[in-house]
Amino acid sequence: MPTTAHSPQSETDRPDASASWAGTASGIFSFPVMCMFLLAAVILGFSVKQIAEPDIWWHLRNAAYLLEHHSFPSVDSYSFGAAGAPWLDHEWLSEIPFFLGFKAMGLRGVLGVYFAVLVLIYAGVYYRSCRAGADCKNATITTLLAIFLGVVSIGPRVLLFGWLCMVGLLLILDSFRRTGKGLWLLPPLFALWINLHGSWVFGMVVLVITITAGLVEGEWGLVVAQRWSRAELSKLVLAWSACMAALFINPFGYKLVRYPFDFLFRQPSNMKHIAEWHSVDFSTGDGKLALIMILAVLAAALFSRRRWRLDEVLLTAFALWMGLSHSRLLFFAGLIVAPILAPRLTLFPPYERELDKPWLNAAIIGAVAGAMIFFSPSTAQLRERVDEDYPTAAQEFMQRQHIKGRIFNQDWWGGYMEWNAPELKPFIDGRADIFVYNGTFDDYVKAVSLQTPFEILDKYRIDYVLLEPKQPLGYLLEHSPAWHPIYADKVAVLFERAPTATAVAEP
Amino acid sequence: MPTKSNSPETISPPTSTSWTGLAAYIFSFPVMCMFLLVLAIYGFSVRRIAEADIWWHLRNAAYLFQNHSFASVDSYSFGAAGSPWLDHEWLSEIPFFLGLKAGGLQGMLAVYFVALVLIYIGVYYRSCRAGADCKDATVITFLAILLGGVSIGPRMLLFGWLCMVGLLLVMDGFQRTGKGLWLLPALFALWINLHGSWVFGLVVLVMIIGSGLVEGEWGLVVAQRWSTAELRKLLLALGVSLAALFVNPFGYRLVLFPLKYEILLRRHDVMQRIVEWQGVDFSTAHGKLALMVIFGLLAAALFSQQRWKLDEVLLTAFALWAALSHLRFLFFAGLIMAPILAPRLKLFPPYERELDKPWLNAGIMAAVVGGMIFFYPSAAQLQQQVDQEYPTAALEFMQRQHLNGRIFNQDWWGGYMEWVTPELKPYMDGRTDIFVENGTFDDYINAVLIRSPLEVLDKYKIDYVLLEPAKPPAYVLEHSPAWRPIYTDKVAVLFERTPKTAAAEAPAKVRSN
User: Fold this and answer.
1) Measured between alpha carbons, how far is A103 from A372 in angstroms, rounded to an integer?
2) Which of these, B117, B145, B200, B472, has the minimum number of CB atoms within 10 Å of its CB?
3) Are the Cβ atoms of B280 and A487 closer than 8 angstroms?
4) Cα A380 to the center of its chain, rounded Å
5) pLDDT (average), residues B47-59
6) DSSP string, A282-346
7) How far apart are CA B167 and CA A243, in angstroms?
């Protein structure tokens, strides 16, 4: 396998070897570093708008439970729809930083955590793009494309830690290709990854693709494959085996290793009904970005004379397949495709270090950092964003009125209710898996899609229904003598079962 | 611009004029492959007779033959009764109507089957002429057929795509011989009367002309400039083609129709409501085919040494964009991309004419033709297909009961009602444009998406509602005291307004806040 370094210009984003102050300053305040700051500003721009993530709340509750009891919640005690059902806290390690951030600084702390993770991820993408031989300006453009593709998952999401591990894996493999070293980092990476997020499976696929692409040798059109040397292959196979073993270093043993496959094969409803698992929709912004990505990949293949390594071809195909089939995996596609596209993109004249102006870069970096601090949202602003999407006022109403009973809720509000008003146990939350297992999720879908809503509300002896306004189910309840609204605002409407009404008018 | 011929010997006529030579040509392996493709087309066609829009198209054609004039206002529905309307696909409606008159549903099937065969023979022929081995061309044409599956059926659009194939053949001919452009104005004059897809033809033509305005090499891509004489001919053909668009019974209104239709659909967000106008969903079979196309293109670019002409690159990008953005254009993508991909696909060893076995090919061709004739569906079988998707029995019930009144219906049943029971005027049909313009479509959406169904039914003073069973609107009516079901079967449920109920019950008000 080739172990050549591709990167002519990539030295540019590394500090100058000179020990002099001026040399160090020109390394720190270089144009490539300034580009990275611009990318960080873009990331912040997206981050501040996406604090209201539905799943973060039950993740916080898990972490609170863990730090309070020094054990994992093994059965559900948050909802009534799956109360007592066994449950695996499969992303436990990712929940802790968010919880600590929240404890330290409230919502600003949560924002700080995922912003930092995103910056690390995209700094990795940018760095890999430069190292692959791209000019820093072209690398900035493709990293920007990757950021836009990733918007679907920007927010306080545990998945981000998984993608951070993915970038780590790719960096290690790059380094191994260049130096023949560094594979010892893989087992600890996978041991960490499995405790952070189920996306380790993607890491394993990437690793296997990279290894197998070096089992053949040849040239086909623009594609070239070079066989690993025997020593390289031994190291890779050993590292892969150690990674497989490292997956079992987790508090749940084989169950956590099995979990992603459980998701794939035992939770079809989850994928069918959750928007981010759906295919890319080309009428949306994400879809148009996906189209740009496809056309850019084809253009790179047609208009650039640069050869493609076989692993690059296979990884691109895998990333395209995944990203187009499930919009949430556009993030992954961006991580993979950007550094492959970057060196094939020649939009700008090459960066020349001699012409660089460190003082100008320093000023821009200072301005960007200052603006990020200045425009960083206050807790009240973040709270306001949350209140625009979640039924805060309705919840307060329920607490004031001492409302007790079984509440049927929009699934994406369940976690929020569990975190902010644990005494109001919701029907369902965003964990999905536990509700898919016991059929609650399917019943939820039957109710909100008006297949058999009254029957479901009766089956679970629901007393209250908390919905977004103008939902089909809300319309039905408004026109049913068995239900009446007792609270409504812009975000939510709360229905109560009419005291003496016998369920529903029979069809 | 390159005018070289890529064509292998696969399709070109034999030099020998002897009977054996002619037989060997007719019963050659490439021709046999084409018969296999025809069989695949036939397999799709026989299952797709139940197309929602064909019925009101038939009614238009019947009106034209009866009145010797075009229907200029709506007289089929009550939702848009009296609204001005343009019969923008009038010429395509005639073959279907004549087919139906001559052979019933079997005749209609024959019409679109023949159109499809002509289209895909064109694709196969172009693939072979582009330098592909006939086996590779067969595989890639089969992929194009699968991609086109979304529009197979009695659809006017097929005549538009037939014109597209014609356009591409004319342009291929011009690139090879420098001749044939005189056919373009005639083609566009025909096309605009058949279907609005002539706009795509114009885009394709402009792209082909535009890509010959530059010269150069970039990676695998090569562009060669047109000679002055070629460019003059092309611009003249383009100008005359534009003028030819006005050769239609509606003048500039038909030329402007596609633009007006596009604006209307976008303004009212209609595209998101009609499945075939939505983007490709990669979880479906069509989506997986689209993914195969993307991978095929990537593989063709990376693994084949063959150069790409600039017009091929531009057409591929345009077709890919159109198809991924709107499912219905997967058909178009198949037509464009198949002949581009075919010569880059090297799945099989090259066809060798000397090894061909005409008697075997003839046997297979005869078996294919015989099979198609033997298994050609009867009128009863085709009617059965229709009855599985349309409320035939419910409409008979309404006729038997002499039900009269305003009927709110599933939009895709409207055309069928207009054709089968013209006395029962539906709320709306699949013509979309006329209903979008007067707001009926928006109200339909508000009703079926349960935003304000009871209010919409009250607004239009609806007496009967004809819906698919077990769907949200039916559930709402089942649980409303203002409505009661009076007929139900597997396909449809018919609701009647409860005689003395004062419309829909007003929604309950919030007690406290």
Assistant:
1) 22
2) B117
3) no
4) 25
5) 95
6) TTSHHHHHHHHHHHHHHHHHHH----EEHHHHHHHHHHHHHHHH-GGGHHHHHHHHHHHHGGG--
7) 58
pLDDT (tens digit, 9 = 90+) per residue, A455-475?
999 999 999 999 999 999 999
Q: Which residues of A touch B308 (CB under 8 A)?
A: 302
Q: Calculate how close chain A gets to B219, using CA atoms only, in Å.
A: 4
Q: Beta strands of A181-320 (E only): which ranges?
A: 218-220, 223-225, 308-309
Q: What is the pTM of this model?
A: 0.90
Q: To which residue do tokens 């464009």 refer?
A: B336
A 10 A CB-CB count for A436 gives: 21
Helix axes of A330-341 and A107-131: crossing angle, nearest 10 degrees: 30
Residues 197-226 of B with CB under 8 A from A: 218-221
Its sign, for the CA torsion B402, B404, B409, B415, is positive
Query: Would the CB atoms of A505 and B481 count as touching at under 8 Å?
Result: yes
Summarised one tens digit per residue, pLDDT across range B4-49 is 444 444 444 444 557 777 888 889 999 999 999 999 999 999 999 9
- Distance CA(B7)–CA(A507), nearest Å, equals 68
Rounded CA gap, B312 and B2, in Å?
Answer: 13
The interface pTM score, or ipTM, of the predicted complex is 0.88
3-state secondary structure of B472: helix
Averaged pLDDT for residues B131-154: 96
Number of Cβ atoms within 10 Å of the Cβ of B85: 19
Q: Could you tell me the two tokens for A470?
A: 């103008």
Find the angle CA(A255)-CA(A259)-CA(A264) to the nearest 5 degrees: 150
Dist. CA A100–CA A106, nearest whole Å: 9
CB neighbour list of residue B371: distance below 8 Å, 6 or more residues apart: B39
Instruction: Assess B291–A contact: CB distance below 8 Å, yes or no.
Output: yes
Give the phi and the psi of residue B84 in degrees, each rounded to 5: -65, 145
Alpha helices in B275-410 (DSSP H): 285-303, 310-325, 330-341, 358-374, 379-389, 392-400
- Check if the beta carbon of residue B316 is closer than 8 Å to that of residue B336: yes
Residue A148's nearest CA partner among A300, A317, A295, A292 is A292
Strand partners, A464: A407, A496
